[in-house]
Each structure stands twice: as C-alpha cells, then as structure tokens.
Amino acid sequence: MSDRLQALADPKSLCGDGLALLSMGQVQSLWRCQRLDGRGLTFHKEKALKPLTLGQFIGKPNVRVRIRCRGNGCKFFRVWRVEEMIAGLEKRGQGNGRTDIDELGAKMTTACPMCKRVNWTADLLWVNTETMGWKALGERSFEARET
After folding, report:
1. What is the pLDDT of residues 22-62, one digit of tens each?
2. 143: CB partners within 8 A, 6+ apart
C-alpha cells in the first residue's frame, strides 16, 4: 500500500466555484494535511500544458491585462484591454495574440516610472459578469483597479 497521495487542481472548476482569485499559497494552506502522522503536500511549479494566451481573451469586456512592477516595494501597475496589449506587442514586433500571459512581463522593456527598474510581471484581471457590480458598472468596474 502506497502512502503517496496525488491531488490535481482544475482551474476551470476552481473558477466555477468562485475561487479564481486564490493564490497558490492560499491553496497550499487549505490543502495542508492536518493528520498527526504529518503527511505533507509538495508543490511543483510546472509549465502549463496549454498556457493562457492573449488571443483567448479577445472580445471579452470583463477581462484586462495588468502589468505590475516587481521592484523593491514598488506598487506601480497599469491595466490594458487585451486588444490594446496585442496591438502594442505587434507594433513593437514582440508578440501577437498567441503570446503567453506568463511571457508578457519579460516583453516589457520600458523602465518603471516610479522606481526606474525593468522588472515586470503580468496577470489577468477578470470580473464575474453575474455580479451586481458588473451589471451596474460594466466595463467601468475596472476603473477602480486602474487608478
């Protein structure tokens, strides 16, 4: 009998359960074994089999791309529509709709206006269209995140 357990997290089902904004650290603490014999989970960062690309989000008004500075303590970020990000990448010859979301930060070559470093990361902002906030504000829901 093996003591080895395997757990897989399906991102689609997590989103469906309203857990889209969980960080990996939160998932790890939720799945931490509480048994007295001390079983533990080991998490490995692996490249996605089918990475998210910009083109998958074209025409979705409830999705934005956020580029954040990772400089020491820097809080600077900017938010773009997916179509604007793709147009900018194509204009500079750095990418297109098939560009992976994980690769976006490395493609940003401009220094941060706050800390003057070139150290960017990218993520997607997604607003659930079933919420009252989206129904009331629509695309204006992102204005609070953009300032």
Report:
1. 666 777 777 666 666 666 666 677 777 788 899 999 999 98
2. none
**If residue 24 lies in a helix (H) or strand (E), which one and from where to where?**
helix 24-30
Cα 28 from Cα 42, distance rounded (Å): 9
79-92: per-residue pLDDT in tens? 999 999 999 999 99
Positive or negative torsion for Cα 21, 23, 29, 32: positive
The residues near 100 (Cβ < 8 Å, ≥ 6 apart) are 51, 52, 53
Q: What whole-number distance in Å separates Cα of residue 14 and Cα of residue 37? A: 29
Domain ranges of the chain: 8-46, 54-146
